[in-house]
Each structure stands twice: as C-alpha cells, then as structure tokens.
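Page 47, continued from p. 46.
Same chain as before, 299 aa.
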Amino acid sequence: MIAALIQGTLNSDVLSRRAVLGALVAPALCQDQRPKLFGDAEAYERFMGRWSSMLAPLLVDFAEVRDAGRILDVGSGTGALAFSIAKLKPHCRVLGIDPSSEYVGYANNKNPFPDRARFQVGDAQRLLFEDSTFENSLSLLVFNFIPDRKKALHELMRVTKPGGCVSAAVWDYGAGMRMLRVFWDAAATFDPTAERLDELHMPLCRAGELGSFWKKGGLQQVTECPLDITMRFASFADYWDPFLLGQGPAGFLVRDLSRTGQQRLREELKRRLALGSEEEPFALSARAWAVRGVVLNRR
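Result:
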C-alpha cells in the first residue's frame, strides 16, 4: 500500500513531497525508492559519497575479503565500496549492482579499475546469478533501504560460496552519525514533522540489530562492530550546501522548506555547531555498524 501511495505521489502533484517522505521514512525507506531519494549521482557524491569513500576501506578490512575470485557489491551506488575493494585487493574482480541506472552509469564512467571492476543495474532481492558465484558479498549503507531485507540476505547467501563472508554496514543514525544527528535535532526545534522523518527510525541502525538479523538469517560466526570515521568540513557552507541538493530524507526536507524555514534551520545548525565563524573548519564523528557472517556448506 505504501509503495503504491509513493509511486502515485511521485507521478502526480496531489500530495506534497513531505507526504512522500512520511510514507518513505516510517516505518522504513525502501530500495525501490532509493533512486528517487538519491537520484542525482553528482549531488550524492557531494552529500554522502565522500564519506562513503572513507568508510569503504574499513568495511573491506572488517569483512575479511579474500584477495582472489569474484566479489559482489550490492547497492554499489557511485562506486565507493567496489573501488576500495579493487584498490586493496588487486587479485579480485568486483561486480557492483544498483537499482539506479544513473548511479551505474556514473560508477562505470569514473571507474579507475575497468579491468577488475564493473557495474550493472540489479535488484538485491532478485539476484541474477548462479549459486556460489562469489567469494564474498558486501553491502555499504544500503541494507536498511531494502524493502524485503530477509529475501535480500538469503539471495546474498545463495550467491556466496560456502565458507565465504556476507558483510554489510549501515550508519548509526541514532547517535553516532553526527552530521545527520545534528541536522535532525535542529530541524525538530521548529518543524513538527522532522521527528517523524528522522532517520533514527530506520531499521538495522542500532547496536546489535545487524548481528541479530544476520544470525536469524542463518549465517555463522557472526561478528558485529562499530566503524568510526571523522568527517572534516572546510567551512559551514561545506556542511550546509549539500543539504540543498535534495539528496536523502534530510535533503528532501530542506528542499520542502520555505526560504524562511531554510534560513531558520541554517541558523539553528550554526548555533548547535558552535562555530566561531562560517569560515571556520570543523569535524564531526561518524559511526556505522558493520556485520559479517560465514555462509554454511550447502547439502
């Protein structure tokens, strides 16, 4: 029902963008709508891609990716994880799949490892690969967007060879991802809908949730741990301007505000960040939760 409402809204002007956001964020955002929320690859790079590139090598290390054979990157976006795997594991061949053809085209065009990494449109819930095709399967900042996460996890397990790892990471939206935590707390001070749209309500983003989900899915030797990075901003504009590009729930919320609303949010963010001036560099911590599990031998 929600999917039908969203699709109808996206194709008409009957409901506001805020109504779309309400349907998307509660109870969860879905992968089918990820091309809508994150539809501009260039804008996504400014908003979140640069931080994905910092997080990706930490996931590769945690996931114990073997430096051999084929590796699957599910929800590859603009290519951060696939590029990191190709750089750190020179004997691997990486295939990235994403539901957005724009992201796939962007990743293929900027690909610095064309001989070992490639990208194609694909759905995590319906992988078009034979059983045991890949040595390892990974997903970065995507699993909480997939509508049927159980099916997607089963698919990743199916296409991963026995003894290989299935790994994923998602932002800790509740507390650890300060860039967005500061944003949503500021927005909630004057916009009553912000709390409902806050990404802290998304699934799998709290300690223990990914590990529990992996265990229930049938993976063995499951390990969960935090991955921490530091986001460094050259100025307040470096922090604020990417929100104006309309990427993700936060970007959609900003674009739905009036100019007065945007200015109020901007000033509240400056107050909460406690900057001496708008030109002052600053840093924010960011935490993601990562999980890995081993695929059992198949009978």
